[in-house]
Amino acid sequence: MHVMRKVWRWYLVKFVTLNTNMAKVLVVGAGGREHAIAYKFKQEGHEIYMVGVNPAVNKFGTCLNIPEEEIPEYCVNNKIDLVFVGPEVPLVNGLVDILHEKGIRAFGPSKKAAQLEGSKVFSKMMMKKYNIPTAKYESFSDYEKASQYLAKQKAPIVLKADGLAAGKGVIIAETLEDAQFELKEMMCNAKFSKAGASVVIEEFLQGEEFSLMCFVSDKKVYPMEIAQDHKRAFDNDEGLNTGGMGAYCPLRKITKEDIEEGVQKVVQPMVDAMSNEGMPFYGILYAGLMKCSDGVKTIEFNVRFGDPECEVLLLKLDSSLYDIANNIIDGKDIDLKWNNDAYIGVVLAAKGYPEKSEKGAVINGLEKLTTPVFHMGTKQVDGNIVINGGRVLLVCASGENLQAAREKVYNEIGKIECDDLFFRTDIGHLSL
Question: 114 in a domain, yes or no?
């Protein structure tokens, strides 16, 4: 009896300890990136809420079908401890500012700071003002002037919609004729809706592209491990630009010196600049970088986790995301710990993506997979998982090296049955 009492006391202590550490975390957004964020918080023992419906998250958390404007009230009424904003749109809308005004702890940049992603023109202007290396460019809101300028440039050339376009507002034109056509589509025919009313025309950079994401607390910068995304739709980097067809780490061709150059010449100057301009940055600053023959240059800035880079990096992250987020909000130092495995994630997209893609086809075989699968664009209908977006699933795997991780991930993908999905077979090929 005495022994039983001791065991029961130990159990109570344990239970109370665990309960004390458990927080209510609300993730805004319901794509693959947000599934990975929720999955990480769940692994850390927290109670998960999600704004948006993700059928996989619905199995271990509470999915809420509420509009953005109702989030603050929900957080107050349900005593949410931390809000983690995943996508760019609510960040650019200023959701973090609204939550902070209500006394709710929220992770992500302010509306002013989120302009770095919300406006390509603003971002380029800041880079120019503070001498941050990037491609030569000009910005236009007048189609005729843009067309005249374009006629004097050399191909290939890059056209970027000024506003948010779900990762698809960038056109790399191989000829000036193609560039003129795409410019007209963007500025006159609303190809990217309002996002393309203003455009940035910039020189095409050649080199090795890599994603450098950093946790930032005002002027403090904490670089994450680097990853590489594959933007083009098809093997051998062919086809249209997408939101990303797969990601992996580590990278063979990017050195510690390259990363250090990215931090010292791009990220640190930008966060210092934002602070100097009265809009200090708190959250994740994503620098899309190109290692060129004359040094590291900036392709673009994002103000949140990259997708699909987020999914592989969070699997690699050993530190507590909950502690990181809270310390960033409070301006405290953080310590990032990573495991030594290689990770890869391969996107399964709906046929027709990134243009028009068909929804509704049933996906079978998911229960057979033994590695993490993040739902990017799925829906549950009559007990089945069906296609509900352009990018549908991200299948991930790890291994002691990249080759082992690749073999595993493609073996896992082979278990999925759906004729309406396609994927690239060469993710990670640049680092083998």
Answer: no
Which H or E element spans position 121? helix 120-129
For position 324, which CATH number holds?
Answer: 3.30.470.20
Sign of CA pseudo-dihedral 44, 400, 245, 208: positive
Residues 403 and 365 in one domain: yes
> Concatenated DSSP letters for 92-115?
HHTHHHHHHHTT--EES--TTTTH
Q: Please give the Cα distance from 376 to 59 (Å, whole number).
A: 15
CATH number at residue 65: 3.40.50.20
221-249: pLDDT as tens digits: 999 999 999 999 999 999 988 989 999 99
**CB-based burial label for 335 (10 Å; 0-12, 13-18, 19+):** exposed
The answer to whether 327 and 217 are in contact (CB under 8 A) is yes
Q: What is the DSSP string of 273-331?
A: HHHHTT---EEEEEEEEEEETTEEEEEEEESS--TTHHHHHHHHB-S-HHHHHHHHHHT
| Planar angle of CA 225, 226, 227, nearest 5 degrees | 125
Residue 297, domain member (yes or no): yes
**Spatial separation of the C-alpha atoms in residues 272 and 280, rounded to whole Å:** 8
Beta bridge partners of 203: 157
Q: How far apart are CA 119 and CA 264, in angstroms?
A: 23
CA distance 348 to 33: 14
Residue 6 belongs to some domain of the structure: yes
317 SS3 class: strand
Q: Which residue would you say has higher pLDDT here, 271 or 162?
A: 271
Q: In whole angstroms, what is the distance from residue 372 CA to residue 235 CA?
A: 23
CA distance 201 to 79: 47
Q: Indicate the pTM of the whole model.
A: 0.89
State the average pLDDT over residues 100-105. 97
Please check whether residues 319 and 398 belong to one and the same domain.
Answer: no
Residues 188, 129: Cα–Cα separation, whole Å: 30
What range defines the domain where residue 258 resides?
208-330
Shared-domain flag, residues 54 and 96: yes
CATH at residue 167: 3.30.1490.20
Please report whether residue 326 resides in a domain: yes
What is d(CA 265, CA 271) in angstroms, rounded to the nearest whole number? Answer: 11
pLDDT score of 165? 60
